[in-house]
Design a protein that fits this description.
- The protein is built from eight helices and 14 strands.
- It has 332 residues and is an alpha+beta fold.
- Strand 13 and strand 14 form a beta hairpin.
- The protein is rod-shaped, with a radius of gyration of 30 Å.
Length: 332
């Protein structure tokens, strides 16, 4: 059998594949994996290509950390940064795009792509009273009316009052159809059926608000394709817009071109230099528009994009540094 001898260069790709698998390891092993690949025998170009292409960022995502340089929170809404793909800027501030947090806070809501309204007969979704709510009165079948009412609630931008009044019309028509024959008995049954229909209508009209809101939350997006009314990126020293998160929080542009809401009163002497955000510690971003100079520096984010359970401890920066003549990120 012929023996094939592999050169060090030919081992690079298998070693790269092994590294990608290792990056799915536990959190405690992750950073050791990255360090190990940079110190491995594979060509340095291959190693740096793996790391700089975002493999490290993908590995961080595996353990629930969204790295700052992967963020797209470049938009600014009433001082708060947000991601336009998952949130909307409204008159009340930033709102999640889907599902809705508040129907009233999203006056420009639009149908959620692919959503289909559902129905469950007579009774509210998940209500403990459903087993005792009848789907009929005698010969009058109310279930089709109840299902249509559910669907009406689940169509984005439908009006609750219109759904409710249509529901009553349907119930009344069911009564009339079931007891249309002449005679005193049918007349009494028809009147009683109308009474039950009015009871159903009163129930949804007076107590159906929560069910309507829940249905609209799933049926709608708070906005269509979101645009940035103001961006946190593109600023420069001397014209850094304020953003939410603290008195010294202002917008900077990161080395990746995205916006970053950072503590501007951080002394320049307290930060490290960087080429990309990948060079910076968690909870910071590499800034190109600071007042510390033309080089990149790692600035502490006012709103680190990492889970609270894994958040890093950042020392709040006050204005005392700038007031004492110390040079700061924002020149504050």
């Amino acid at each position: 059998m012929e023996t094939i001898h592999s050169s060090p260069a030919s081992k690079a790709e298998p070693e790269a594949e092994a590294f990608e698998q290792e990056c799915r390891a536990t959190q405690s092993e992750l950073f050791d994996n990255i360090a190990r690949i940079l110190g491995s025998v594979m060509p340095r170009r291959t190693a740096f290509r793996l790391v700089l292409s975002g493999l490290a960022g993908a590995a961080l995502a595996e353990i629930g950390i969204k790295s700052a340089w992967a963020a797209t929170t470049t938009c600014l809404c009433q001082g708060q940064t947000y991601d336009p793909t998952t949130a909307c800027c409204t008159a009340t501030g930033v709102q999640p795009k889907h599902p809705l947090a508040s129907v009233s806070a999203c006056p420009n809501k639009v149908p959620h792509p692919g959503y289909t309204a559902t129905f469950n007969g007579c009774g509210g979704e998940g209500s403990v009273f459903n087993p005792i709510i009848p789907g009929h009165y005698g010969a009058a079948n109310f279930t089709p009316c109840c299902n249509n009412h559910d669907i009406c609630y689940g169509i984005c931008n439908d009006v609750k009052a219109t759904c409710d009044s249509t529901f009553l019309t349907c119930l009344t028509a069911s009564c009339d159809a079931a007891y249309s024959a002449p005679g005193v008995l049918n007349s009494i049954q028809r009147a009683n059926c109308h009474g039950v229909a009015n009871t159903f209508y009163a129930a949804v009209s007076n107590a159906g608000g929560g069910f309507f809101e829940t249905a609209q939350d799933g049926a709608c997006d708070c906005c269509s394709t979101s645009t940035c009314p103001q961006t946190c990126a593109g600023s420069a020293c001397g014209s850094l817009p304020a953003c939410a998160g603290g008195a010294d929080c202002v917008c900077f542009t990161s080395t990746e071109g995205t916006g970053a809401c950072v503590h501007g009163a951080t002394p320049c002497s307290a930060v490290s230099t960087c080429s990309t955000t990948a060079d910076c510690p968690a909870g910071t971003a590499c800034l190109t528009t600071s007042c510390c100079g033309s080089f990149g520096v790692c600035g502490p984010l006012c709103n680190p994009i990492i889970p609270a359970s894994q958040s890093v401890s950042l020392t709040p920066m006050s204005r005392s540094a700038s007031q004492s003549g110390v040079r700061t990120l924002g020149g504050l």
